[in-house]
Design a protein that fits this description.
Elements (H helix, E strand, L loop, with lengths): L14 H8 L8 E4 L26 H14 L3 E4 L11 H11 L2 E6 L6 H7 L5 E5 L5 H8 L4 H20 L4 E8 L4 H14 L3 E6 L16 H4 L11 E4 L21 E4 L4 E3 L11 E4 L5 H6 L1 H11 L4 H4 L7 H11 L9
Parallel strand pairs: 1-2, 1-8, 2-3, 3-4, 4-5, 5-6, 6-7
Antiparallel strand pairs: 8-9, 9-10
Helix pairs in contact: 2-3
Amino acid sequence: MAELQLDGTKLTFHVKELLAWKQGGFVPPILVEVSPTNLCNHRCDFCAYEYLDRNGTYLDMERFRVILDELAAMGTKSLFYSGEGEPLIHKGLPDIIVHAGGMGFEQALNTNGARLLPAVADRILPWLSWVRWSINGVSREDYALHHRVSPRQFDLVMNNLTHAAQVKRALGLPVAIGVQFVYLGQSAATVIALAERMKAIGVSYFAVKQFNRHPNNPFELETPPPIAELLTILQLNDANFHATVRLGALEWQAPREYQRCQALPFFAEIVANGDVYACGPHLGNPAFCYGNIHDTSFATLWSGAGRRQVEAHVCSIPDLDAVCMPNCRLHEINRFLWKLSHPPEHPDLV
């Protein structure tokens, strides 16, 4: 299995865009995150988007097909289906994944897996680079508690996951099938047992992540992860399976070393009603919204006054730690860009 990178940033592999950014030129969003709907079939107690209104909005896929043409012309490379709700609730998403894959976009999907039924998996897995399943319970009962669903949902998700792994093996697909587990106070032994089960099923990776609270979600977790015990899952690693504990979370308490958010040119998020946002943690906040794809083209939004106004607002924030959640989606990109724009002494002495 090729080396996986679950933390840090891959922006270093986009030299042309970095050079354009450094020279003040045009930079297309390398990645566009897409929220096909704001509905979700689960009600996870820790969810960063649980504060949003689940009013049954669906992205207009015909309009989005036009946007895909624009993104391709601009130079956008990848699409990530995630965001406000469960992406696969939108019945038009599989068609879009096949269509965008045919256009050459690299694509990824974040899902709770309940709607990733065998027929859907058979159709979309060949067009995806990776699928990340959100499984945050070590048993039927624990899963039901934190996802706030029936225990039967755990059985459904595990069956769907097993089928997806079988399809990957049978067809020799390069898609990475990963499982992200947000630690919510379970014993280390039960988490390790779940990792062992995932390895037996044939998933590509199992990542334990520390809970990262969104300011608008009242859910609190007082139990810190038992890092030393959890790290024993690394013993499960082999050529076909990668287990990890995402230790970057231990640095969250430290203040940001960068003073401005510089990552906005490389990323955008389109939500179900067509609004385009600078970043996910501020969905619903008009100060971070560039405009709406139903009012104008994406290219116009990307070069228009709305985006300039958002970037001016973000640059004027005196203390990002007071406004933005810790370890946000763009945090590692910002750390890299800050170092790039504030080099140390004697940078040529490599």
